[in-house]
Design brief:
This protein is α/β, with parallel strands linked by helices. It is 39% helix and 16% strand. It has one domain: Rossmann fold, CATH 3.40.50. A 6-stranded mixed β-sheet has the order 3-4-2-1-5-6, sandwiched between helices.
Length: 161
């Protein structure tokens, strides 16, 4: 799935932040969300868009464990998502994740699949995770029993002189 995710919307919907959270609380919540997305979204192209708030200048897109992250600048995250949807060459291959009706409508207008935050989480949880890479075949070391016994036996009492 290729998805553009309304970051703060998903953050609040799954309880990683609230309106009462301070800046540090939001930052911790964003990191936890990105970690969760990296763990559950392996193999998917995910872009999380956050409100940039009072950023003094535009910031570059970054990557957190394979999840792309972008903060809006001089516009809301919703407005940036709409711009990204307008500029998308293959919108039918894209999903939009938000509980915001305006963002959902913009996605539908471009022919994107639209998920509420809760439905998206359900899909990510239900999807089987990719298998762990196979362990390397390494020869099992041979243990010398006498050496092992000597190493773990009680020390001999010292003789008194």
């Amino acid at each position: 799935m290729n998805a553009i995710i309304d970051g703060h919307n998903l953050l609040h919907a799954i309880g990683l932040a609230s309106r009462k959270s301070d800046a540090k609380g939001h930052a911790r919540g964003r990191t936890r969300l990105l970690d969760w997305l990296a763990d559950h979204g392996a193999g998917h192209a995910l872009l999380v868009v956050y409100d940039g708030g009072g950023n003094p200048r535009a910031s570059a897109e970054s990557v957190h464990r394979g999840v792309r992250v972008r903060f809006s600048f001089q516009q809301t995250a919703d407005e940036l998502i709409e711009v990204l949807l307008r500029d998308e060459r293959h919108p039918a291959k894209l999903s939009v994740v938000s509980n915001d009706r305006q963002v959902q409508d913009a996605g539908r207008a471009r022919g994107c699949a639209v998920f509420t935050c809760e439905a998206f989480v359900d899909v990510m949880i239900a999807e089987p995770k990719p298998p762990a890479p196979p362990l390397e075949d390494k020869p099992v070391p041979q243990i010398d029993e006498d050496e092992l016994l000597a190493a773990f036996s009680k020390p001999k009492p010292r003789s008194k002189k």
